[in-house]
Amino acid sequence: MAGSSDNRQKLLSRILLGVVVLALSGGMLLYLVPTGPGGNTGASTDVVAKVGDQTVTLNEIRQQLDQIKQRSQVPPMLVPYYTQQILRQLLLQKEMQYEAAQLGIHVSNDEVADRIRLILPAAFNQGVPIAPDQYAALVESRTQMTVSQFEDTVRLGLLQEKFQKLVTDGISAGPAELQEEFKYRNEKVKLDYAFIKPEDLQAKITPNDAEIKAAYEKNKAKYQVPEERVVRYAIVDVNQIRQNIHISDAQLEAQYKQNIQQYQVPNRVHVEHILLLTVGKTDAEVEEIKKRAQDILNQVKKGANFEELAKKYSEDPGTKDKGGDLGWILQGQTVPEFEKVAFSLPKGSISDLVKTQYGFHIIKIIDKETAHTKTFDEVKESILTPLLLTEADKQASDIADKLSQAIRQSNKISLDDLAKQYHLTVGETRPVSATDPLIELGNSPDVKLSDSIFRLRQGELSLPIHTDRGYLVLDVSKILPAHQGSLDEIRDKVIVDLKQEKASQEARAKAQELIKRVKGGEKFDTAAKALGLDAKTSDDFARSGSISNVASGKQLSPAFQLKPGDVGAPLELGSNWLVYQVVNKQEPNPADFEKQKKDITDAVLQAKRSLAFEAFQTALEDRLKKEGKLQLMPEKLRTLADLG
Question: Do the Cβ atoms of 600 and 162 come closer than 8 Å?
Fold first, then answer.
């Protein structure tokens, strides 16, 4: 499926994250968490848990944590959370493997092969598996796993599906539950409301000297001025070096010829498509889908906007919101039926219905390019920029090496002498604390600049530090010790804190006063205006809706229990307050129930199945603990927080 390549890539990019990654057609869930072939069974000094004869080790958890860190930033404060989630997922896998062995549940090789055919269709050529070495390379490039890890991961996913089916097959949704969900989705309210933000009140608050002094005295302990340092620095400026570098056309052309293969453009076509899925459908359903697809095609051929139709009807989640745009595709990237049509049609044309194993496609050809090699003039600028960067970085690195040598040879050499000798720019920072940003010095990929500054002694030069501006040599010129801040020093901070405190108090008071007035019989907008507040009226919204930029329907759920004219209790939303009165309440239209019944039934069943499976997991874990089949090592678990 052309559009499925985007989704498969998203699935494969998440495989290592240890979470549920993709819902395939027909509601199948694939849980892909690499555990290595067969799990660990040998003794290990870093075992944190045992399930039967299988173990979970710190090393397994560390490996998965490292894989997550390679793909996304993990704030240090969240590392304990991630490690706990990884541990829970590994335990669940091994608990299910243990239970499957007891119940005789297994996953066959054929089932694994069928699932791989869905995830990695490129692993099969016209239904026949590709060569083992090609398969191994494909798996590694797409999943960053070995073949055994990947196939064990797929097997685990299928095993979890079997347990889900076993646990949830008997679950049903009763009429009362469906009616409750129908009401939840369709009941709507309209509110008069005032959103009271302390930050809007601060501008009108002007504390007097007595208030400022009293606030300072009351909170003096929190107004500590940390140690600050003033730093002089000399910089090897990469941008300046780059401006003085000349690269001849002959050098550029030599680079072009040396890398000519990367300027070869293959046959490619830029396409958009509309997809209606047929995977898992009955023959009768497929016929109905084909009729809908033909109707959409007829609209396209009559001049309807293709992109708008794609947004409305396409079932390819990877391209739907982009108007069906797949971008440029190369030969061999899509299934044969799609590729044959895409590469045979002329630019600007629309295909008839194209049937693939995934469904019916309507393809629009945006542009086409035949295979060719880009000329030197076309790519000259793209060659010049990296060459300039490389040469400037090399020259800057050479100077940094000489600076390092000079600093190591003599601890008496001054920053000014170095700057003069190597033609460096010298500057000085403002007084900075350990937490202040140092944007003017650039960002360092290797060290935190403030750490380097606060490790230096006065009179000592740092070795060159690499930043995105170049290389810095630092010299601490002044140290301002930490001390209790005087009122004069931290007056602005005291005023800011005092205004925030008074504004919060005033916001709360206004919220309470507004409720009192409205309950006393004043009109909502009149009472709000008298208090200097802006009264507004919401649109009708359901619990799944919201008052935009104010509150969600879930936060406003108490409003759905009130009658028109009732005033709700004030809602504290962070530092803000919301006061509201119910203007109108719209009950669901019973005639809409049948139209929504299928979606509602699916949603209720999915929610109940999720709860049932969670209950199964909890019960399984509790039982295995009681039977002594699940053992946790508390002394090792305490070390999880140190894995970051």
Answer: no
d(CA 19, CA 86): 9
DSSP-assigned beta bridge partners for residue 354: 361
- DSSP class of 463: P
Q: Which residue has the tokens 């395939």?
A: 24
Angle at 278 between CA 273 and CA 280, to 5 degrees: 145
Q: Which residue has the tokens 């007056």?
A: 491
What are the backbone dihedrals phi and psi of residue 269, each rounded to the nearest 5 degrees, phi first? Answer: -140, 135
Burial of 238: CB neighbours in 10 Å, binned 0-12, 13-18, 19+? buried
- DSSP string of 199-263, one letter each residue: HHHHTT----HHHHHHHHHHTGGG-EEPPEEEEEEEEEEHHHHHHT----HHHHHHHHHHTGGGG
8 A C-beta contact, residue 56 and residue 40: yes
pLDDT of residue 15: 30
Distance from C-alpha of 220 to C-alpha of 494, rounded to nearest angstrom:
9
For residue 580, what are its two tokens? 């509201």
Distance CA 13, CA 31 (A): 13
Low-confidence ranges of the chain (pLDDT < 50): 1-44
Q: Could you list the beta-strand ranges (E) of 252-356.
A: 264-265, 268-277, 325-330, 354-356
**Cα–Cα distance between 392 and 243 in angstroms, integer?**
9
Element (H, E) at 581: strand 576-586
Q: What gap in Å lies between CA 200 and CA 576, rounded to an integer?
A: 10
Query: What is the model's pLDDT at position 416?
Result: 94
Residue-wise pLDDT for 549-608, tens only, equals 999 999 999 999 999 999 999 999 999 999 999 999 999 999 999 999 999 999 999 999
Q: Concatenated DSSP letters for 137-179?
A: HHHHHHHSS-HHHHHHHHHHHHHHHHHHHHHHTT----HHHHH
Of the candidates 161, 85, 52, 170, the one whose C-alpha atom is nearest the C-alpha of residue 621 is: 52
pLDDT score for 641: 58
Q: What is the pLDDT of residue 218?
A: 94
Give the integer Cα–Cα distance in Å for 329 and 336: 13
485 contacts 464 by C-beta, under 8 angstroms:
no
Q: Which tokens belong to 251?
A: 């050098």
Residue reference for tokens 């600007």? 348
Could you write out the three-class secondary structure of 486-521?
CHHHHHHHHHHHHHHHHHHHHHHHHHHHHHHHHHCC
Token readout for 296 is 């959409």
Q: What is the pTM of this model?
A: 0.55
Tally the C-alpha atoms within 13 A of residue 83's C-alpha that lie toward its C-beta: 25
Closest-CA residue to 400 (of 416, 432, 383, 422): 422
Question: How do beta strands 29-31 and 20-23 pair?
Answer: antiparallel
